[in-house]
Amino acid sequence: MMIGGNVTALIQVKDEGKKNAIGEREHEWTDVIDFLGWLDYQGGQNSYSTYDAKVQETTHVFICGFQNCKQLSKKWVCNPFNFINGVIKSTSQDEKVDLTSENARMVIDGNIYDILLIDDPMRMHKHLEIYLKYVGGGLGV
Predict the structure, then answer these.
(1) Which of 58, 110, 136, 141 fits a disulfide with 44 by CB distance 3.0 to 4.6 angstroms?
(2) Which residue has the higher pLDDT, 92 or 28?
(3) Is the Cα torsion angle 108, 118, 13, 92 positive or negative in sign?
(4) How far apart are CA 72 and CA 90, in angstroms?
(5) Do 25 and 56 touch, CB atoms closer than 8 A?
(6) For residue 32, which of 79, 102, 81, 66 has the smallest C-alpha distance?
(7) What percent of the chain has pLDDT over 70?
């Protein structure tokens, strides 16, 4: 059952990462699927950090029709209207990935959100409620 929506959200998963010259893991984000749904503000604030930088700390919920989040293909073709870095990454093999809050993020209108929880209320498979935390937007995030 689809519930419609007015916002398209791009879901990205991060890879295992490769070690750089100083031993840090560098991860790349890969587009996996998009959801049509509703984005709603839950709470938050704008505050100033120690260095007088204004920081937005908000939480949102994204509600969409139910979609299975298991065994998604990493060869999915991205929606060009949601580009973050302008790079199209293509894999030669069809890797499968399960979408979880640990390995995924959501991109909506160029803004990046960490996924805190993916909820299938009462496991009825009618809709998903995806709880989000705003991270930022633009290049280099």
Answers:
(1) 58
(2) 28
(3) negative
(4) 15
(5) no
(6) 79
(7) 71
- In this structure, which amino acid lies at residue 123? R
**Of 33-37, 41-45, 65-69, 124-128, the least confident:** 41-45
Q: Is residue 12 pLDDT above 70, yes or no?
A: yes
Domains of the chain: 7-137 (2.40.10)
* Residue 78 DSSP symbol: P
81 with 102: CB under 8 angstroms? no
pLDDT of residue 31: 86
Distance of CA 128 to the CA centre of its chain: 14
Q: Which residues neighbour 139 within 8 Å (Cβ) at sequence distance 6 or greater?
A: 84, 85
Both tokens of 38, joined, read 């509703």
Q: Is 58 exposed, middle or buried (0-12, 13-18, 19+ CB in 10 A)?
A: middle
